[in-house]
Amino acid sequence: MASPRVLLRSTPTSLKPILQLRQLSSSSSSPSPSSTPPPNPKKPLTPQQQLLLSRALRVNQAGELAATLIYTAQTPPLLRREPHLKPLMKHMYDQEASHLQTFNSLIAKHRVRPTALYPLWSVLATGLGWSTAMMGREAAMACTEAVETEIGDHYNGQIRQLLEMVQGWEDEDYDVGEEFKELISTLKRIRDEELEHLDHAVEHDAKKAQPHWLLTGVIRAGCRGAIWVSERV
Ligand SMILES: [Fe+2]
Ligand SMILES: [Fe+2]
């Protein structure tokens, strides 16, 4: 596995568009009507900030792909026994599909390399979804509870890091730019929807899964590992 530093050197162009995001934004700060003062300049991203952003988009896309696959695999076995869950499963799947679409667009726009482990995550996510649904509604919901707990924490961490970046720019009187504000509000919206899935899972007996502690413990550890790897590989 290439270290992040090696990766940065070996694929210098992959991060350029994120830098361009700032340059593009600053180029829009040209002459304005005489009555309004020109906006403050935008500070270019440091290499660490570029790395943080490219990792964030890569791991988020991988995670949302996994989420759509988990629900796709869970739905048929679950609905065979519990057809009344169809609207809930569709609602959660549709939101995941929309999250995936968001990050597909963002990684394409900023030319961030997707995770190289796409095939592995696809197999694992499908297996996780299918096996928990075969165990019953409680286990399927415990899977959602575990995954969304980790994903909610993960998005919160990203939002915190981006807010710190923005605060730094504001402290130095740099313009933050609309694209960054929009990215943060997109992450907040998606985080809220993940936490809504977590609530749905608990309302549908996730805590009654047997053994709940083992199932959620294993899945949560797996998610943390997958997040760590997907940021880097
Ligand atoms: Fe999602
Ligand atoms: Fe979700």
How far is it from the N-terminal to the C-terminal residue, by CA? Answer: 7 Å
Mean pLDDT: 84
Tell me which ligands are bound: fe (ii) ion
Major sheet characteristics: none
Helix/sheet category: mainly alpha
Number of helices: 8
Radius of gyration: 20 Å
Kindly state the number of beta strands.
0
- Count of the domains: 1
Order of helices and strands: HHHHHHHH
Shape: elongated
The low-confidence parts are 1-16, 23-31
Helix content class: over 70%
Main location: mitochondrion
Biased composition (Pro residues): 34-44
GO cellular component, one term: extrinsic component of mitochondrial inner membrane
Pathway: Cofactor biosynthesis; ubiquinone biosynthesis
List the helices and strands and how they pair.
Elements (H helix, E strand, L loop, with lengths): L3 H7 L5 H12 L19 H35 L4 H24 L8 H18 L1 H35 L6 H26 L8 H21 L1
Helix pairs in contact: 3-4, 3-5, 3-6, 3-8, 4-7, 5-6, 6-7, 6-8
Bound molecules: fe (ii) ion (2 copies).
Structure description:
It is a peripheral membrane protein. Belongs to the COQ7 family. 76% of the residues lie in helices and 0% in strands. With 233 residues, it is an all-alpha fold. The chain is elongated, with a radius of gyration of 20 Å. It binds fe (ii) ion (FE2) (2 copies). The site of one fe (ii) ion has 5 residues, from helix 7.
